[in-house]
Design goal:
Leucine-rich Repeat Variant; 72% helix; globular; Putative importin 7; protein transport; small GTPase binding; nucleus; cytoplasm
């Protein structure tokens, strides 16, 4: 490989006019032996231009990532390029030295490549890796040391996701590395330089990666572990550098040191919440290190108290450690003497309104709303950590709440500053849940609200008004003895939500109002007269702020005031539709000058998509309110249809699910001409992206097929479109879930349109049979295809039997019927749920009831199999009917009961008590037990998904699933058997003579059940149960082996 030519091509990629040609040449070279090692050499060649070396590093990383071990081919037999083993060996022998020697900006690309190589080749083909790294790790050259640490960090990134049985070699290597790393860190901590801090941070991150998800206790001795804890505490106790740049390596090393302490404590070192494996370690760790660590963390808090700068991540993780320490009496006893001071001097200031908050309020009130409400994932917040610590302490440790209340009341009752009073209200928000449960405080909440919170609703400072509404929202369950005061409160909140001059106040007042409406029924009478104005104002606020929680407010109002919403439903629905279109237009067009913490365009689009989806959910809620009001539905339908058409026309695929849900809702009871127009848009949508939308389209298609059968058949293009969709789905590879839905649709048509879709019957049966001849992973798809054939047999028994006898099963001399019956009987235990079992029973009843002249050898051969299979199905049916009855009789007692004061007292721990989190321990034990069998886990996940799919498909009912048809299969079976006994005793005997005593008893039980059904059902319904009349014209040319199961 000529390096000069590669350098020239890389150089061309940096020039706009030559970039295409340079890229083309590199793409042609990448399969040539020696190309990738040449890239590595170019990266290290100091005489080459830096830009070219950067390009070489990027190409090297991409080649390793894509071609070191390429993904499995999509098609069987397809060949995928893979880097030649000769090149791989050259790279493995030099990449560590290359990364170590490379300029720092290029090391990142090499680190990614190294991770890929380690993932696939260590230890079997890259066993020399630890020794290569060790040589540089012990070097006195700082640049080499930094590169070696990056190699080790790449090693750890791979280790994190290894299974238990794959970690042994990594652990063995780390047993060698940990003493070296400790020694290196010990020599670095005495240095006060940026270079030293960077190296310290790398070492600490390596340690964190090692213990993050797994901690093999044999990786280091107790003595060495103790030394590591000591040095981490030394790092945390170092406040020599006082600058406030949180991105500096100084604060980063402290952040990662704290992450280690938090992780080790919560996952391995807290006796009440660790799995059995770590229990001895946890007992030792708690007593050996709690005093030392808590002392160091208290010093961090002291530094904050003394106005020294402490970074937010360090401060929040410090408080997080304290929250975890509450669970153990040993650590609580160490923390308790300092807790009151912590509340006054750390928690209280942290929960105060800061200059940073004021700046955000002023410059970007919308972002202030999101940050305050925790509406979007945010960086570590000391205020949140303080709130959690305060709340957890009051819940878990007796006496804490009583000790802090005098301090809070003193601030509120004295001439304290507005900021201090606001901080106390913030503290009340943290403990609001406890105040509502404790009788001693609950009884005083009304006077507290009247004396301290309601006056704040009129405070001149907007942030104080907002905080007061937040607290009132948290205390919305508080009982008001004076209803006049309560009426005044509701009115104040409503007015603030509509008219306050500050956006955050309006937003938080709206949240407060929704909670008052939800929790206090008496609030309804005060809100109902203003519902129209309130909803319109809230929708305006939603458009202004794009604050998703406002959608929850609107949802609560819609469901609470269902009757009152009817006169204004059309206007509200139209406004919601306009709001949705505004949101998606912003997302599509973008607003480059927006001020928003979500600076990344993708994040902003994702956020707006979430808000827009919630808007659509509220539109669905209004449709549900009007579903029994035909006149209202007629008003709402055009608005929804226009929106659905806009979603389809604009190809807003992210909202296709919601659009299809609208169509489903509007077609559940009746299908208007307007909605039949929408049906014509479904096929073009399907053609754009069948894989993404077919399963979501299934409920709509089922409605169109079953709700108005006459209209569905009135236009031949409708069944043609459904058939075309199913044909296309069945032609796809690796789409078994979609094919399950397609098979279900075919079955529904065959069962519900008996005698009306004759030309399509052989197409559908052929399609299902053809799919059965191809490899199948899912047993559910196999049974669904069998069900399509059964439905075809029930539709037209004689014609289908004739076809199945006349044609051979592909690749054999056996006819289709013989092979199909064998597979059907073998899979009898795979038919699950009510519908599938009932259909299978009816199908087998048809087979055994055939007259003697139609009873072929294929049927007679399996005579001993039919009744046992039917008994198996009836056994399953008995359980399925029992489950159905149980579900129907269940009341609405599943709602979570709110905690009582006794529950809280049960949670509160005495000074000598430890919290034991049994639920978390069970979960961790389960995770640990499954780490060795990830492949099995994947199978379990697939099984769970298949079960969910089965339950979903069971919901797509047919005429035979109507409640009046329940148990008809018992009656049908009884009639078939009694008729056979009377008219064809020889065949009857052949069916039952081989039965065991247990099977005979089971058969008697089925007959008894059938007799009870006959007694309970009216004769007309019983007659309908077995009435199948078929007279189709079946084409003579049936090509079972064609690719898509089509007729020739």
């Amino acid at each position: 490989m000529d390096p000069t030519r590669v350098v020239e091509a890389l150089s061309n990629t940096l020039l706009a006019e030559k970039q295409e040609n340079g890229t083309k040449i590199l793409d042609e070279m990448h399969k040539i032996i020696g190309f990738v090692p040449t890239l590595l050499k170019i990266i290290l060649e100091e005489t080459v231009d830096v830009g070219v070396r950067q390009a070489a590093a990027l190409y090297f990383k991409n080649n390793i990532s894509e071609w070191w071990k390429p993904d499995e081919p999509d098609e069987p037999g397809e060949l995928r390029f893979c880097i030649h083993e000769q090149d791989k060996q050259a790279i493995r022998s030099s990449i560590v030295a290359a990364l170590v020697s490379a300029p720092i900006p290029l090391q990142t690309h090499l680190q990614v490549a190294l991770s890929k190589i380690i993932k696939h080749d260590f230890p079997t083909r890259f066993e020399e890796f630890p020794e290569q790294v060790k040589r540089f790790l012990e070097s006195n050259d700082r640049h080499h040391l930094r590169g070696a640490l990056r190699c080790l960090y790449a090693f750890m990134e791979v280790y994190t996701y290894k299974k238990n049985d794959e970690r042994a070699n990594t652990v063995s290597a780390m047993q060698v590395f940990f003493p070296i790393l400790y020694s290196t860190l010990s020599s670095l901590v005495v240095e006060e330089s940026e270079d030293s801090y960077v190296l310290q941070t790398l070492i600490i991150k390596i340690f964190f990666s090692f213990v993050n998800y797994h901690f093999p206790l044999d990786a280091m001795s107790k003595q060495l572990f103790t030394q590591w804890i000591d040095i981490l505490c030394n790092v945390l106790g170092d406040f020599k550098v006082t600058h406030s740049d949180t991105s500096s390596s100084t604060w980063k090393r402290q952040k990662w040191a704290l992450k280690i302490l938090n992780r080790v404590f919560t996952r391995y070192g807290s006796p009440g919440s660790v799995i059995k494996l770590y229990q001895p370690f946890a007992d030792w760790y708690l007593k050996a290190f709690s005093g030392q660590i808590i002392s160091v963390l208290l010093n961090i808090c002291e530094a904050y108290r003394q106005k020294s700068f402490v970074s937010k991540p360090v401060l929040s993780q410090t408080l997080d450690y304290f929250s975890s320490a509450l669970a153990n009496s040993f650590s609580w006893k160490l923390l308790r003497p300092h807790f009151s001071l912590l509340v006054r001097e750390v928690i209280f200031p942290l929960m105060s309104y800061t200059e940073e908050d004021a700046e955000l309020w002023q410059d970007d009130p919308i972002e202030y709303i999101r940050a305050e409400a925790g509406d979007w994932g945010s960086v570590s917040s000391p205020a949140c950590a303080a709130s959690t610590l305060l709340s957890e302490a009051c819940i878990k440790r007796r006496g804490v709440l009583n000790n802090i209340m005098p301090f809070c009341i003193h601030i509120l009752s004295s001439e304290s500053s507005p900021v201090e009073k606001d901080a106390v209200l913030h503290m009340y928000i943290a403990i609001a849940e406890i105040l509502l449960k404790k009788a001693a405080y609950k009884s005083q909440l009304e006077s507290f609200l009247v004396g301290h919170v309601l006056p704040t609703l009129h405070a001149p400072e907007g942030y104080r008004r907002a905080r007061a509404y937040r607290l009132l929202e948290k205390l919305s369950e508080a009982k008001f003895n004076d209803q006049n005061i309560f009426a005044q409160v509701v009115d104040e909140v409503r007015k603030a939500a509509c008219f306050d001059s500050e956006l955050p106040v309006r937003a938080f007042a709206a949240l407060c109002l929704s909670e008052l409406v939800r929790c206090q029924e008496t609030a309804h009478q005060f809100v109902a007269p203003h519902l129209h104005e309130l909803l319109i104002r809230l929708l305006e606020l939603l458009r202004q702020t794009e604050f998703d929680d406002l959608n929850n407010v609107i949802e609560i109002l819609i469901h609470t005031f269902e009757k009152e919403i009817v006169p204004i439903a059309s206007e509200v629905l139209q406004t919601l539709s306009d709001t949705f279109l505004q949101l998606v237009n912003k997302s599509e067009n973008g607003l480059p000058n927006e001020s928003n913490e979500l600076e990344d365009t993708e994040d902003l689009f994702e956020y707006r998509s979430i808000v827009a989806t919630s808007v659509l959910d509220n539109m669905e809620s209004i449709l549900q309110v009007g579903e029994d009001n035909e006149n209202l539905v007629a008003q709402l339908e055009p608005i929804v249809v226009r929106l659905v058409q806009s979603i389809f026309d604009l190809n807003l695929s992210v909202f296709f699910d919601e659009a299809l849900t609208f169509i489903f809702s509007l077609t559940t009871n009746k299908i208007s001409p307007l909605l039949w127009q929408v049906f014509d848009q479904l096929y073009p949508v399907f053609k754009k992206d069948a894989c993404e939308c077919f399963s979501e389209m299934m409920p709509c298609l089922h409605n169109y097929i079953t709700v108005d059968r006459e209209a569905f058949l009135a236009n031949a293009s409708r069944i043609e479109q459904v058939t075309a969709m199913c044909l296309e789905v069945f032609s796809m590879d690796d789409q078994e879930r979609l094919q399950m839905h397609a098979a279900k649709l075919l079955e529904v048509i065959l069962l519900d349109y008996r005698g009306q879709v004759n030309p399509y019957v052989p197409k559908y049966v052929e399609l299902a049979l053809t799919r059965l001849t191809r490899p199948l992973v899912s047993s559910e798809l196999r049974t669904l295809c069998i069900q399509v054939v059964i439905a075809g047999l029930l539709y037209s028994p004689m014609d289908m039997l004739h076809m199945m006898i006349e044609h051979p099963w592909p690749g054999t001399e056996v006819n289709i019927l013989s092979e199909f019956l064998k597979r059907w009987i073998q899979d009898a235990d795979c038919f699950l749920g009510l519908h599938d079992r009932r259909l299978c029973v009816l199908g087998l009843c048809l087979i055994i009831s055939l007259p003697a002249d139609k009873r072929t050898d294929a049927i007679v051969t399996l005579s001993e199999k039919y009744i046992p299979s039917l008994l198996l199905l009836f056994s399953g049916l008995k359980k399925a009917y029992a489950t159905k009855a149980s579900n129907q009789n269940e009341d609405d007692s599943d709602e979570e009961e709110s905690e009582t004061e006794e529950d809280l007292e049960g949670k509160a721990l005495g000074s000598d008590e430890d919290e034991v989190d049994e639920e978390s321990i069970r979960y961790l034990e389960m995770l640990e037990a499954t780490k060795d069998s990830e492949d099995d886990d994947d199978d379990d996940v697939d099984d769970d998904e298949d079960d969910e799919e089965e339950e979903t498909l069971e919901a797509f009912d047919t005429q035979m699933d109507k409640s009046e048809c329940d148990m008809d299969e018992y009656v049908t079976f009884y009639r078939v058997m009694t008729e056979l006994e009377r008219t064809d005793y020889a065949w009857y005997s052949q069916l039952i003579n081989h039965l065991s005593e247990v099977q005979q008893n089971d058969l008697k039980g089925v007959v008894d059940t059938a007799l009870k059904c006959i007694q309970q059902k009216e004769s007309k319904i019983i007659e309908q149960a077995g009435g199948y009349t078929f007279s189709p014209n079946i084409p003579s040319s049936f090509d079972f082996g064609s690719p898509n199961g089509q007729l020739k």
